[in-house]
Write a structure and sequence with these properties.
Layout lengths: L1 H21 L6 E9 L30 H6 L4 H9 L7 H23 L2 E6 L10 E6 L10 E9 L2 E9 L2 H12 L4 E9 L4 H23 L6 E17 L2 E16 L5
Helix pairs in contact: 3-4
């Protein structure tokens, strides 16, 4: 009986090990699912609240590849899709795919920068008693460099009026060491959600991410600071896969970060 139990336990542990090994590690290579609207003006296109937890997974079924331009690319890279559609004179869909491809190639480096070097922030909370207006500023610590971190785009598929694909990027050895530093110093993991109008395009996505950072910082320090500070300065490093969707005419960004607080300025100092 004991041997049977050990045998079953061994199978379960092996199965768990295989499942864990299939989860991509962000330590050396980044993998992010990117989507872009086929229409530059998506209008009232929205996702249902039921998918707010993340991007809908791309369906590998052949039914999702309804366009012969994508079919002829055989699930290759975005550049192969663009080439295939460019030679498909019957469809003449290149303008639509060109927009989605270029948008994808803009969104991916933006998120990759947040995952490699992080985003710095300077947050001044609002204070009605002192008549202080809320101010939030943020910036990339290090601009993303395609020469240092080339991004590849794979497995494009059209689904629900969007072009979905996976973006991959390798960390350099120096960046791998830096990421290990972020994890080793036991920084808090924080989560925030922000939104911005869809009509603002890519700026709307960036604004939604900025509001997500502000929400994460505000939520975290509201717990640990009894008195509202005058200013909070620090850096966040994007971790996990960014979740961005459209709901009620708004881009919504639901993001998770490592939070490194550099300085807290309190009103008692003045």
């Amino acid at each position: 009986m004991m041997r049977k139990i050990l045998a079953v336990l061994s199978v379960v542990l092996c199965s768990c090990a295989v499942a864990v090994s299939q989860i991509p590690s962000q330590d050396t290579q980044l993998r992010v699912q990117i989507w872009a609207e086929l229409d530059a003006f998506p209008g009232s296109f929205e996702v249902e609240p039921s998918v707010e937890e993340g991007l809908p997974a791309a369906k590998p079924a052949e039914s999702a590849r309804q366009d012969s331009g994508l079919e002829s690319a055989k699930g290759g890279t975005l550049d192969e899709v663009a080439s295939a559609v460019a030679h498909d004179q019957a469809l003449k869909r290149l303008p639509i795919y060109s927009y989605a491809i270029e948008r994808s190639k803009t969104i991916a480096p933006f998120f990759m920068a947040g995952m490699i070097s992080g985003w710095s922030f300077d947050y001044v909370p609002s204070d009605k008693t002192r008549r202080v207006t809320e101010v939030f500023e943020w910036s990339e610590d290090v601009p993303f460099d395609q020469n240092v971190n080339p991004v590849t785009y794979k497995a494009p598929v059209v689904q629900d009026d969007r072009l979905l694909c996976w973006a991959y990027c390798d960390r350099t050895p120096v960046q791998q060491l830096e990421f290990r530093r972020w994890k080793s110093v036991n920084l808090p993991k924080v989560q925030g959600k922000g939104s911005a109008p869809v009509e603002n395009g890519f700026d709307g996505i960036k604004e939604a991410c900025a509001n997500a950072i502000k929400d994460a910082v505000r939520t975290y320090w509201r717990i640990y600071e009894k008195n509202k500070p005058k200013e909070i300065l620090g850096t966040v490093l994007l971790i996990g896969e960014p979740r961005v969707y459209i709901y009620e005419g708004q881009y919504v960004a639901d993001l998770e970060f490592f939070l490194e607080t550099d300085r807290i300025v309190r009103y008692t100092y003045y």
